[in-house]
Specification:
There is one protein chain. By secondary structure, the chain is an alpha/beta fold. The chain has 3 domains: 2-196, NAD(P)-binding Rossmann-like Domain (Rossmann fold, 3-Layer(aba) Sandwich), CATH 3.40.50.720; 205-293, N-(1-d-carboxylethyl)-l-norvaline Dehydrogenase, domain 2; 296-445, Rossmann fold (3-Layer(aba) Sandwich). It contains 18 helices and 14 strands. The protein has helices at 10-21, 33-40, 51-60, 70-74, 97-109, 126-135, 156-161, 173-183, 198-229, 233-241, 262-275, 281-293, 296-304, 332-342, 355-362, 396-402, 417-422, 435-445, and strands spanning 2-6, 25-29, 64-67, 79-82, 114-118, 142-146, 166-169, 193-196, 313-317, 346-350, 367-368, 381-384, 407-410, 426-428. The strands form 3 sheets. It has a 6-stranded parallel beta sheet with strand order 3-2-1-4-5-6, with helices on both faces. The chain has a 6-stranded parallel beta sheet with strand order 11-10-9-12-13-14. Strand 5 (114-118), helix 6 (126-135) and strand 6 form a beta-alpha-beta unit. The model has no long low-confidence stretch (mean pLDDT 96). Bound molecules: nicotinamide-adenine-dinucleotide.
Amino acid sequence: MKIAVIGSGYVGLVTGTCFAETGNNVTCIDINENKIKQMKSGIVPIYEPGLDLLFQRNIAEGRLTFTQDLKQGIEGVDIIFLALPTPAGEDGSADLSYILNVAEKLGPLLNKYVVIVDKSTVPVGTAENVRAKIALSAQVEFDVVSNPEFLREGVAIEDFMKPDRVVIGTQSDKVKALMDVLYAPFVRQGNPILYMDERSAELTKYAGNAFLALKISFMNEMANLSELLGANIDHVRLGIGTDSRIGKRFLFPGIGYGGSCFPKDVSALAKMAVTVDYDFKILKSVMEVNSIQKKVLLQKINKYFDNHLYGKSFAIWGLSFKPNTDDIREAPSLEIIQSLLEQGAHVIVFDPEAMRHIESVFGNTIQYAPNPYDALPNTDALLILTEWSEFRTPDFERIKNTMKETVLFDGRNMYDPHYMFINGFHYESIGRPLISKNINQYQNEL
Ligand code: NAD
């Protein structure tokens, strides 16, 4: 098939590359001139494990091309995917301007039947709006379909190539037949293609993300309660995660969810509820808990240093909102760095992939280390904000010998509190006992 993908970001580029990988001819379109230039010269503009290999292969085999020109990019295609941003607008609802602007431009450019597939996360009713916008100027028949994307940054290729399910909102048999052929290579193990009406497909994406955010906020509150009650969230997590009704995933407490999806999608769903006069109480709590949780590590730091952070020096390991991505959108690191700076602290950071993005936000107000250990000299505390694998078993002796004080605030529960205590660290994490003050209780627990 001949496919165009409009928007070559985390979703669009993975979508385009994976469809090329299964033999389709794909043109990726983007308005960002620099991105198009990079891609044309064989550079992947984002960090996504495994993408580079597929990207290079499909360019070399002539199935993956790039353009800034919408007209040229959609010429003769069977399917147009929209993978455009839908950020939170000022009031928290989804900003549909990117989608609707492109829809408006598409109308006059269509010269044969085409299926327009919305992969962006959009509020219920958007497919109808997009259809209406295009119909204003289109001279040919077309269909608009909702096909929300569930890939996770960091494992996007695996998620796209082997999705748990493909959700497609359409009632057209012609479209279903086309989608069956397009997605057949991705569901060979028998995972379903779920057809439903457009509105349900659009809502499914929000329901999924809101439920996952709810799980995170629930566990974060459980972690906070565990600390107060003298329990250990790690044990509680394993205790409930082994119940198959609950499941093991998404039960790790931390410093709040971030990223380009959960915050904006939970907020957009809450706004959608308001438009139909529904008071979605749980969603409000999920958001409130998350914004409080993003401050939990700062509270621990302030408590430890008696609110005197002025002149103190902090090393930070991990800046992206989660490991294996360079994405810092809504990352807890942003708020934590900002607060440390406002309190007069010095900050030196390291992240394997996200440094250039953080640098574009904080410039020379903070320092950047070329590797984790170079961030440590003369620091009063080390903060772990993203659970990159390379931080899992660091050289603790080297850390101890390099830092001014052996104080570690771990927002991702990377290390065993008992081990850290024995090795001479003041170690604070999320929802687990503070061993330095309470060793007897912890030993009893063991
Ligand atoms: P992104 O910001 O990484 O990429 C969007 C791209 O669209 C950018 O490259 C931008 O330059 C381009 N663009 C903007 N306006 C354009 C226009 N008029 N014409 C052509 N290109 C244009 O966004 P993303 O993370 O890929 O997300 C895209 C959509 O997919 C969003 O709705 C998001 O909620 C959804 N989604 C994202 C993820 C994820 O993990 N990132 C997962 C599932 C769904």
